[in-house]
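Please produce the structure of this protein holding uridine-5'-diphosphate-xylopyranose.
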Amino acid sequence: MNITIVGTGYVGLVSGTCFAETGITVTCVDVDQTKIDNLNKGIIPIYEPGLEPMVKRNMEKGRLFFSNNLKDNISGADAVFIAVGTPPDEDGSADLRYVIEVAKEIGRYIDHYLVIVTKSTVPIGTAKRVKATIKEELDNRNSDIQFDVASNPEFLKEGAAIDDFLKPDRVVIGTESERAQAVMTKLYKPFLMNNHPVIFMDIPSAEMTKYAANSMLATKISFMNDIANLCEIVGADVNNVRRGIGSDSRIGNKFIYPGTGYGGSCFPKDVQALIKTAEQKGHPLEILKSVELVNNRQKSVLYKKMMAHFDGNLKGKKIAIWGLSFKPNTDDMREAPSLVLISKLLNEGAEVTAYDPVATKECQRKIGDTIGYAKDQYEALIDADALLIVTEWSEFRLPNFKVMEKLMKENLIFDGRNIYDLHEMKELGYTYYSIGREIIKKETIE
Ligand code: UDX
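Below is the modeled complex.
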């Protein structure tokens, strides 16, 4: 089989590479010539564990190609996947400009039966618009070439995207014809060997599934964050509550970890887009509005704890931050809670030095040298009044507390990810703030 994937962003590149891994010939197309040149040299524009060797291997095997020319990569294809960006408009709704441009081009050059698959997260009704756009172009050409559209949302988690693609919990595909269903079944067969189901449905339901899935997960997180904050007030420990409710299989133990709020390219964007769609359709989703509100508030939770600790005065305080990316195993800084925190700390006149295993460059690109960047986690602590843990990278889980103590002015940690044990922090003599748990105060010997 032969497929073309338009858009070499996160979704397009991971999907294309994983499809190539099964023996399919894949051409990934992008208008960005520099990106294509780099990819042809094996240079990957994103950080995703395992992706680079996989891209190189499939290029060497002659199954994975990169091109800036969509026109030439339509005629040999069984399917074209649209995986271009859908950035949020000012009002939060998804901007479909790029999707429609691609559809137009397909309509201009399609020369045989083709399945056109929307893979980007797109508002409900987009596949229909893609279909109408292609049809319009075909009408202009007086052509009656047959084609089908399909919706195949992705559920990839950054940092675990390859595994998610190769071993999916499920594959959701919206189609309107048996012919399209047959093409999609063939394409996904290699991934579905070990009971990973493919769920076929109508197209609007497939489009809705993506938004509903991400919104449900975002809701779980915001709910837990709100519960965590209440736990602090009533003297409960959210870790116990999490274990208590998570063992109920109806609730499940995933995505109920409280923290500093969800970030990334998907949850914030998709929640906003669904809120917008619901409003436009005259059925406002009050729950989701609260999910967003709670999340925005949660991004300041460590800042509020610090303000309370330092009696509202952070001027001149030296603050170390561990973790900048919105979650571990990625350099993605989109909607990262660290950015909100940094901006608030700088506004208060604090001095910030941060360390992240991979996101430093990306952070620097966003906020320049408004903060200091440390080479390692310990360097960030030199003379620090406090340490803030924003992202739960593995290497922060078992640090050398004795070394830390010598480097910092104060044994003071604000942990936004609950990575340390309360008893241990007490024994080590740290003042330790976390999320939804008791505050550990360093015992001062009179
Ligand atoms: C998400 C979806 O999981 C994926 O299916 C979809 O295709 C794209 O969006 P991603 O954004 O890569 O993936 O990250 P994910 O691991 O889902 O985490 C999202 C955010 O939620 C992160 O900021 C993370 O820190 C936060 N989170 C996650 C929590 O705060 N608590 C949790 O229990 C889980």
